[in-house]
Amino acid sequence: MAIPVPNAKMRLSIVHEDARVLVCDKAPGVVSEPGRGHSNDSVLNALFATRAKQLASLGEARDYGMLHRLDRMTSGCLCCALDHEAYDFLRGEWEAHRVRKSYLAIVRASHKLGGVGQLGACERPLAEKRVQGRLVSVVDAHGKSASTRWRVLACAERAMLIECEPVTGRLHQLRAHFASLGAPIEGDPIYSMYDKLLPLSKAEEPPLGLHAWKLSFAHPDGVMVHAEAPPSRKFIDMLSAHGLTFDG
Predict the structure, then answer these.
(1) 18, 25, 63, 71: the active-site residue
(2) Are 191 and 185 contacting, i.e. CB atoms less than 8 angstroms apart?
(3) Is the confidence at residue 76, as pLDDT, over 90?
(4) CATH classification of 1-96 is 3.30.2350.10, yes or no?
(5) Apex CA 213: angle with CA 85 and CA 182, to 5°?
(6) Class of CATH domain 102-214+232-248
(7) Quick check: 203 pLDDT over 60?
(8) CA 25 – CA 103 distance, rounded (Å)
(9) d(CA 204, CA 207)
(10) Do residues 186 and 209 touch, judged by C-beta distance below 8 A?
(11) For residues 66 and 53, what is the distance between their CA atoms, to the nearest angstrom?
(12) Mean pLDDT value of segment 158-165
């Protein structure tokens, strides 16, 4: 990836920042980093508008500081390191699964998830496969281990609001796991039921009922960071459309 072009026109909300680490609130519809069709409108482009010297010094080998990514239609907490040592330390925390990520998801109502307050877990292994030219995850006994925990926050006739935590970090893990439970995330343009996939469409992509709500991790200076991004307006509108409310 070439050095991102700064884009000062992009709005970016920062929910935590210190001299070494920042967490921004990624808006739905925005990509995490530059790529095909998005050369100058990613989160990294926006960050380079004000922090180009720091991020450029980390180089492509350290992803210009970006420690993880969110799918384009997923909103919420996205973490970036601002120096070499912070990146290397936090990359180790991610790889050791010590970073806690809490998401809010609007899913199709399913008795498999239980009622309000119910705790649950999905431990189904996932394998990456290319379908219709797109890389996706499917439940596969020979795939890599994948663990997701959840708690049901609210229920309506056709949808549920859950707080979920991907203990591991597989491709599309939450989307694939909940689809396999018969409770696909609302608005998902790929996953339908179990490992069946929705056909690709050139139509406008619908909002996705998935928000990276909280992010907790050990800071390289020895303290704990607890970042939180409020649900986007699109997410709140989806809740309302399904007869759900969020009191967090």
Answers:
(1) 71
(2) yes
(3) yes
(4) yes
(5) 120
(6) alpha beta
(7) no
(8) 13
(9) 9
(10) yes
(11) 14
(12) 97
CB of 65 closer than 8 Å to CB of 88? no
Binned at pLDDT 50, 70 and 90, residue 143 comes out as very high
Burial of 24 per CB tally in 10 Å (0-12, 13-18, 19+) = buried
Whole-angstrom Cα distance, residue 123 to residue 139?
A: 10
- Using DSSP's 3-state secondary structure scheme, residue 21 falls into strand
Where are the domain boundaries for CATH 3.30.2350.10 in the chain?
1-96, 102-214+232-248
Question: One-letter amino acid identity for 171?
Answer: L
Question: Is 18 marked active-site?
Answer: no
Handedness of CA 75, 77, 83, 89 (dihedral sign): negative
Burial label for 93, CB within 10 Å (0-12, 13-18, 19+), is: middle
Question: Using CA atoms, how far apart are residues 63 and 129, in angstroms rounded to an integer?
Answer: 24
Extract the tokens encoding 244: 């759900």
